[in-house]
């Protein structure tokens, strides 16, 4: 028994010694690179005040009845009342269903095109042509949703839209695209894909840049054609990035592009266009129920965290790859 006690004491002493060494090493590195650590202070303050402080305040507001005149800390604590109001809203089921459907539609339609475009850019022989085409498809990403809506409206509006003018020229009747529930989601998803397809290729091109070119040369010498090289070399090289992006995109399943939908939707298509973000907009700014809107935002974040953890666990189990 004494021997065991001595062994435990020696183990704890070793752990304490190792911890002291690490602390001394950290302090020594900080002293050696104090200028870099001082330069890091503004970055630390930015994330603390701009990123993490609002998250902490959201947790407080979600459990209070926020009154603008009283402020956050003087407002009354209401516990889970905001969540009860939120989950008993008769529109919640429809809002959640629309959100999930639009998010999955955006993911299904918009996930593959950037991969195809990145592979095409990667295989282009002319670097000058590659740079020009990349720049052209990147530009829409920098357009605001207001500009994108203006472009889509100019194309599909009933009065002077280019598409309706073409339909009339062909002898076909004009169509109310923005007032038709069957056309709202295609317009929404199509414009989103057009806006982000070029930007989405960047991360795939970065992954392809690390692929050894000798693999392609060896495959070509063995008689593999372009499609076979893509299937056996390019796509396997993109698997880690694809899994990473799927996990992140599924984590945003309750964020269906609220800014875009607020610009595109109207009362005629509300049944298919009303999502969580538009619900929050109405509750928070329309009815001044800021606490209920904040509670819904926390619910979105919580569901997103669970989905990221779940998809990462499933991916690691069946493919051996994950975010971490």
Description:
The model has no long low-confidence stretch (mean pLDDT 83). The two termini are 42 Å apart. 76% of the residues lie in helices and 3% in strands. It is mostly helical.
Topology of this structure?
Blueprint: H1 2-32, H2 34-61, E1 64-67, E2 71-77, H3 81-87, H4 92-110, H5 112-123, H6 127-138, H7 145-156, H8 162-169, H9 181-209, H10 213-221, H11 226-251, H12 258-264, H13 270-273, H14 276-286, H15 290-319
Antiparallel strand pairs: 1-2
Helix pairs in contact: 3-15, 4-9, 5-9, 6-9, 9-11, 11-15, 14-15
> Uncertain segments of ≥5 residues (pLDDT<50)?
none
Mean pLDDT level: 83
Number of strands: 2
Distinct helical segment count? 15
**SS strand fraction:** under 5%
Estimated radius of gyration: 27 Å
Distance between the termini: 42 Å
Order of helix and strand elements from N to C terminus: HHEEHHHHHHHHHHHHH
Which structural class do the helices and strands define?
Answer: mainly alpha
What is the general shape? globular
What is the helical fraction, as a range of percent? Answer: over 70%
Q: Within the largest sheet, what's the order of strands? A: 1-2
Report the biggest beta sheet as strand number plus sense, adding barrel if it closes: 2 strands, antiparallel
Condensed summary:
By secondary structure, the protein is mainly α. It is built from 15 helices and two strands.
Attribute tags:
15 helices, 324 residues, mainly alpha, two-stranded antiparallel ribbon, single chain
